[in-house]
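Let us practice reading a record.
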Amino acid sequence: MRAIRWIAWILVVLVAGTTVAVLVSDDIRDAVLGKPGQGTGIAEIGGPFQLVDHTGKPVTEKDFLGKPSAFFFGFTHCPDVCPTTLYEMSTWLGELGPDADKLNVAFVTVDPERDTPELMNNYLSAFGDRIVGLSGTPEQVSQIVKEYKVYRRKVEQEDGEYVMDHSASVYLMDADGKFVGTIAYGEADDIALGKLKRLVAGG
């Protein structure tokens, strides 16, 4: 009887765990694809924006058409996720070789209060010269964050400073500016590079 009770409890835990996994999966699906009956949101990721690049030049979404693009949202005071992702991106670009010129890569700030074009320029110089930094007014940054369905939240620290919680994926867009997928934070190098190769090839 004791063995039967243990088996029953294990089954209960497994069912509960499966239910939680389904709920989490549904949340992710709804965030990216839209809730059931509301249509999909894939085509809705991305849209018009007006920002400035790390040289101070005004740019819009139209400047990124004609070639596929990879957008990463972060901030220059980020302690780990952002520098890690930018380093990986610069490595992947190097492995793409000449095909890297067929891809737009942008680092978009979620912290416009601190990330001026000058600061973005200095920060990105550590990761080569292929990544464009994008910043702007708080209103302009809020617009692109909204268009790309990016999560961000300001977290105050005890010392009076703050950090930004934010989405950690790289957004992949085709040459027409349509969302085609993501590279997740911590994704295996070969898989991430394969996605970029397919993106550049138009697949």
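A brief commentary: Confidence is low (pLDDT under 50) at residues 1-41.
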